[in-house]
Amino acid sequence: MTDPRTFGDLKSSPWAEPRLRGRTVRDEIRDNLLRRIEAGGPLFPGIVGYEDTVLPQIVNALLARHHFILLGLRGQAKSRILRELTGLLDDRIPTVAGSEVNDDPFRPISKYARDMLEECGDATPIAWLRRDQRYVEKLATPDVTIADLIGDVDPIKAARGGHLLSDELTMHFGLLPRANRGIFAINELPDLSGKVQVGLFNIMQEGDVQIKGYPVRLPLDVLLAFTANPEDYTARGKIITPLKDRIGSEIITHYPRSVQLGMEITTQEAWTRRGGRPLDVPDFVLELIERVAFEAREDKRVDKRSGVSQRLPISVLESAISNAERRAVMLGEERVVPRVSDVYAAVPSITGKLELEYEGELQGGDTIARELIRRSAGKVMDERMGGADLSRIVAWFDQGGALKVPGDERSELCFKGFSVVPGLVDTAAEFGLSPRDDTPRMVAACELILEGLAAQKRISRSEELGYTRSKPERREPGMGYGKGGISFG
C-alpha cells in the first residue's frame, strides 16, 4: 500500500481515524510503549545494567507523559538512552510538504501550512517523516541563544519574499520548533545560561513558544528530555529552580553494579570485530580490564565527583587488543590473544580518563594506572584461584629466582620461561587450559598469576628486573639475576 501523497488521499486513509488524527507525540510514545511491554522482550535494546533501576523509572515517566531528565556522571549511557527513544515512535507520520515545523495536515500550526491548505485544499501535497528524522539533539553550551532554540525574525527572508517583518512568514524557526511532533533532547542542561532556560518555560507548561516578542504562538507538540552531570551544578552552571519544577521526572543513572554487568557492556561497545587474524580474549583478561574501572571508582586519589566513565574499560580493551594484534602481526602468530602486559600497554587509555585529587596529582596518572592494573590482577586471581597453593611459586622467587619476559615475545618462548618457575604452569592450568593445546592463553594465565602475587606483595615486579623476590637483596651494578634467574630479550 502506497502512502497518501495529497491531503485528500490522507483524509480517506487510516490516518484520518480519530485515534490517530489528534494524537500527540507523548500519546504516541505511550501507546507504542504499552504495546512493547505487552509483547515482552527488551524495551530498550542495547541498554545493559539498568533493567531493575533506571529503565522502570523511564517507563513510568513515559507512561505518565512526563518531560524528564537523566542525572548522572559521565559515561553512564545517558545520551544512548535518549537516542533509543526514537524506537518508540511510529515508523512514519504525514506532514504538510515543505513545512519547517512538521505541520500535522489535520492540525497545522504555521502560517505556511495554513496558507497551503487554504490554497490547495485536498490537493495539498503530503510528505512523510521517518522516526529517525523526529529526534533533535542539542549539546548545551554557554553561547546557545534563544534564537538558536526558539527562533528569530529573518530580515533576508522578509526582503526576498516582500513580507513585513511582523509577518509570520519572515520567521526563522529554531531547533525546538523544528522538533515539533518529535523528541527534543538537550545534553548537559546546566550549561545553558539562565535566560535561555527561561525560554523553555512556556513549551514545558503551556505547550507553546513565542518568537521575538511578536504576538505569534506556536502550540508545539514535543517530548523534552534532558541530561545533566551533578558536577555541572557547581563547576559550570545550574538548572534554575522554575525549570526543574516543570520537569516531570528526575531519573538518577549509575555505573554497572557488578563486574559481570560491566564486562557485558564493555564487550558490547568495544570495537573488536576487526577482521584479519582471529581474536581470542581470555575471560580473565576481560575481567581484569573491567576491574580497573571498579578499582578506580573506589580509589581515594580519583575524584569521585567526576566519576570514572564506562568508556575507560572500553578504551582499555580496544588498546590491549591493538597491542596484541601488533605483536601477532610482527611475530607471525596465528591468533590475537591479549595478555596482562597488553593491558599495561594500554595505560594511555586510562590516564586521560582519570580526574585526580591532589594526592593523585603528586603521584602521577601513569603510576596510579599501573597500580590499578596490579590491584585488579590481584582481585581476579583471588576470585578465581583463592584456594590454590602458590607457595612453590613464591618459594622459587624467595630463593633468588627472577624472571623477566618482554611483552613482545613469542608465546612459545614465553611459555618456556614460565615453565622454569615450579608450579606456575600447573597452577595456570586450573583456569581450564591445556599447555599443549593453548599456549597463548597459558602465557596470559601465567602472567596474571605473577601479577596477582605482585599485588599481594608476595613477589616483586619492576620494569627493570621483572619478577623477583618480595624484598630483593641489594645488588651491585653489573650483577646478574642470580642462580635461578632467566631473562629474554
Protein described:
- With 489 residues, the chain is α/β, with parallel strands linked by helices.
- The chain has three domains: 246 residues, Rossmann fold; 130 residues, Helicase, Ruva Protein, domain 3 (Orthogonal Bundle), CATH 1.10.8; 103 residues.
- The protein is 43% helix and 13% strand.
- The chain contains 24 helices and 15 strands.
- A five-stranded parallel beta sheet has the order 4-7-10-1-11.
- α14 crosses α16 and α15 packs antiparallel against α16.
- The longest helix has 21 residues.
- About 2% of the residues have low confidence.
Brief characterization of the structure:
By secondary structure, the chain is an alpha/beta fold. The chain has helices at 7-11, 18-21, 25-39, 54-63, 78-84, 111-120, 146-149, 155-161, 175-178, 194-198, 201-205, 232-235, 241-246, 259-269, 283-298, 311-331, 340-345, 348-351, 358-363, 365-385, 391-398, 411-419, 424-428, 439-455; strands at residues 68-71, 92-96, 126-130, 135-139, 151-153, 171-173, 182-187, 208-210, 217-219, 222-228, 249-252, 402-404, 459-462, 466-469, 485-487.
Question: Main beta sheet, described?
Answer: 5 strands, parallel
**Class by SSE composition:** alpha/beta
Strand order of the largest sheet: 4-7-10-1-11
The percent range for strand residues is 5-15%
Spans of at least 5 consecutive residues with low confidence: 473-484
Ends distance? 71 Å
Annotation field: number of helices = 24
Name of the CATH architecture of the largest domain = 3-Layer(aba) Sandwich
CATH superfamily of the largest domain: P-loop containing nucleotide triphosphate hydrolases
Count of distinct strands = 15
Radius of gyration: 30 Å
Query: What do the pLDDT scores average to?
Result: 87
Described by the principal axes of the CA atoms, the overall outline is elongated
CATH class value of the largest domain: Alpha Beta
Helix content, binned percent: 40-55%
CATH topology descriptor of the largest domain: Rossmann fold
